[in-house]
Amino acid sequence: MQNILTIIKKLSRSLFVTFVFIVATILVTFFSVRYFLQISKEITENKKEIISLEERLKVLEKSATYISKPAATSLTQAFPAENTTILSLSQIKKIAAENNTVINNVEVDITENITENLSTAAIKLTLENETINDFTTFFTNLSHSLPITSTQEITFKLDQEQIESRLEFNVYWAPFPATLPSLTTPLSELSSEEKEILSLIDSYDKFEQSTVPSLSPTTNPGRTNPFEPIEDTQQNIEP
Amino acid sequence: MAKKFNLLPKESDNNEEIALSLSILNKINLFSLSFIFIFLIISATLYYYLNQESKNAISQTSELKQKINELQSAEQGLILSKDRIAKIKLVLDNRAVENIFEKQSTIVNNLPDGITFRQTKIDLTTSTIELDATNSKSLLTLFSRLLDNTNYRELIMNKLYFNPFLGYSISLVIN
Questions:
Q1: Considering only CB atoms, which chain A residues are within 8 Å of B109?
Q2: Subunit contact B40:A174, Cβ cutoff 8 A
Q3: What domain range includes position A93?
């Protein structure tokens, strides 16, 4: 009887050890595989991110070479963020003076019209030229100047040895982009068509940006501190 | 006749089977132990390797991000340029009047003798030019020049007047 008990003890101990080993093997395998899969996934994602970041870096390094500061300035002058009506009128006046063009009338429709995220305003001009060539040069120079415009209508006629014309065109503006895309968003460099537009706009006649001279504060010898309260002199006057 | 006797106790029969079971169980235990041991060695190596890979990837990513941050002004320039160019393209694509004006200018600058310009009207839908001719010969020269030019998508003569004192007056639609 004692012998049987010893055998059962031995068997059960051995079975228990086997069970523990099997469970341990399963658990170790499960958790290890899970961990390795997770870390492998993270590494793959990191590598993908590295590839996209490297591409982005290449694009940025290249773009720094062809988007010069003057080119970027031309683009912002071509399509400013604020209403360009005044700038366009100033350019028209300058071009008219250079091309023997008399501006008889200017009408500006400042009603902001937003189409395809572009704000527009309409300018109508009545002009007088001595020759057709003057008008042609005026119009060509106007369409090759910044801010960019698009003509809606031209009417011109020869009237008693003078060219009378009427021009109607739109000026445009749109707010600048306010945010940069995330680092993982793919960024492409300028396409050949975009580069062509960039060089075309860079060749257009730009407007001069006026600079305000720095003003030095004036001194007031009478009062050391001009913001001091003025003394009430009437208090000393006796009735 | 010889007779076989089993003098061993009855339990010893079972003992053999139990010993066999115990040896199988021990083998399983040994196998599991060796498996766990080998697996742990492989896991440790793999863990070290993957950890290094992960660390390298993270440091490379942060290094690249830093480089990109240093080029932030170039990035701003690129984003701004792309945005402005897209908008400029929209305007340039709608510049139909300017293109027609160029075509009409070419005609006016190359008018034959005896033809004078009277008036023109160009808008987004129509484009007409009116010319005066003193005689039919100059009109013929004008038409032959116009027909030689392949720049026009559409060339329609929609009016032709004749006045014996003033000559011919024509109106052309050009696109």
A1: 136
A2: no
A3: 78-176+191-202
Give the number of domains in chain A. Answer: 2
Place A219 in a pLDDT band, splitting at 50, 70 and 90.
low
Same domain, A90 and A56: no
Residues A89 and A76 sit within 8 Å (Cβ to Cβ): no
Q: Is A46's CB within 8 Å of B61's CB?
A: yes
- Helix ranges (H only) for B2-159 are 11-70, 72-93, 96-109, 136-148
Residue among A24, A47, A63 whose CB faces B36 most closely: A24
pLDDT single digits (tens) A100-132: 889 898 998 877 666 777 888 899 999 998 888
Q: Do A196 and A103 fall into the same domain?
A: yes
Question: Are A152 and A56 within one domain?
Answer: no
Inspect the interface and report whether the beta carbons of A153 and B124 lie closer than 8 Å.
Answer: yes
| pLDDT one-digit tens code per residue, A36-68 | 899 889 989 989 989 988 888 888 888 877 777
- The verdict on A128 and A195 lying in the same domain is yes
Please report the pLDDT score of residue A239 as a whole number.
45
A47 and A82 belong to one structural domain: no
Chain B neighbors of A199, CB-CB under 8 A: none
A182 within some domain: no
Q: Which residues contact B74 (CB under 8 A, 6 or more apart)?
A: A60, A61, A63, A64, A67
pLDDT of res. A168: 92
**Whole-structure pTM value:** 0.71
Q: Assign residue A132 the CATH number of its domain.
A: 3.30.70.60
- Mutation site for B-interface testing, chosen from A33, A55, A57 by largest number of B Cβ within 10 Å: A57
Residue A34 lies in a domain: yes
Bridge partner residues of A106 (DSSP)? A125
Q: Looking at the predicted complex, does its ipTM rise above 0.85?
A: no
pLDDT tens figures, B109-120? 888 888 888 899
Distance between terminal CA atoms of chain B? 133
Which chain B residue shows the shortest CA-CA distance from A36?
Answer: B47
Chain B hits for A50, Cβ within 8 Å: 57, 60-61, 64
Residue A190 to residue A194: CA distance in whole angstroms: 6
